[in-house]
């Protein structure tokens, strides 16, 4: 299991931090102390144990209860003043969860990328938006809430179709429509979403999700392979939102930057659970090769072919992790100034490359590990049986690979010299 580190790559603080045991799970307990890195690692270990047990019994309720009892859901609270290290902290948590269940990692990633966006988004000359963001982050931290999100995209005969719209109603708004899918739908406390007001003005809202009569949460969309992503259809039927539920709206540069930054964070963090699956696959192959012996009574791990195969897998895994970390760190730099749209676009490009690389790498590594271990993967109870069924969703979550390929193709085939571009 990877380790969590607070702050920048080097914590650099000599202050003695609390290592008190976690409080009992509660959605209404505020933070009193800043934990040490060792305490956070211990919390993550408890969460992973709860997830392993939940996966075995096909019930993740204890996992979510354990998660809420830690600092992990609101890890962003330690990065509100300095975002350096935020992406690595989120990545490490999601990587560990993904090593058990990539599907559960996808659910928690949806929570993290929204919080990371809100934490790092640079707000200038908009005190109302700044105050609303601060109040939301404070509430999430103090009450240990989980954020689900949706853009209300639907599956129709035209791609990128949105199935909901809002209209003004006095001082508030009414939202009607549906979205094809939303992860963390059953466990989320708040819903963060974007919808067009009167079909033209994009607006970001936050509304209670749990036990909200105005929101219809449908059955599981993936009842087998990705069941632990808690992905469901969602619909609103003339759902009323007050002015206080609005974070920001308008067809302007600020909302455009918010949309792009949110997209960048999503592409930069979604590799984590699937690379966690790849790491688990390499570990399972390592254990198999060190345990099983050849006809000469020597471990298979000593065969030259196995050394080179595993070595190549590890290199590809490490390369994919490196580009994901680089993408996250680039996004962090945008929070400390007012970035130009072109700078955000560059961050999006790199994050998309990270997602594309990780998705392909994770699928290939799991397949190669399965080939090495053989049919015993499918004899029941082997972790790679579950991971094999879930890792195939890596290319499907976030931006589709073909869209990313075309994005880069347009960059290359434009008028500018390819060799003059800084990559």
Fold and architecture overview:
By secondary structure, the protein is of the alpha+beta class. It folds into three domains: 37-145; 149-249, Beta Barrel (Butyryl-CoA Dehydrogenase, subunit A, domain 2); 253-420, Butyryl-CoA Dehydrogenase, subunit A, domain 3, CATH 1.20.140. Helix content is 48%, strand content 14%. The protein has eleven helices and ten strands. The protein has helices at residues 37-57, 61-68, 86-98, 102-120, 127-143, 253-269, 271-291, 304-334, 341-373, 383-391, 401-412; strands spanning 147-150, 153-154, 161-162, 164-169, 172-182, 190-197, 201-208, 215-220, 232-241, 246-249. Strands 1-6-7-10 form a four-stranded mixed sheet. It has a four-stranded antiparallel sheet with strand order 4-5-9-8, with no helix packed on it. The longest helix has 33 residues, at 341-373. It starts with 36 loop residues before the first helix and ends in an 11-residue tail after the last helix.
Which tags fit this structure?
single chain; 423 residues; alpha+beta; Butyryl-CoA Dehydrogenase, subunit A, domain 2; Butyryl-CoA Dehydrogenase, subunit A, domain 3; 3 domains; 4-stranded mixed beta sheet; 4-stranded antiparallel beta sheet; 11 helices; 10 strands; globular
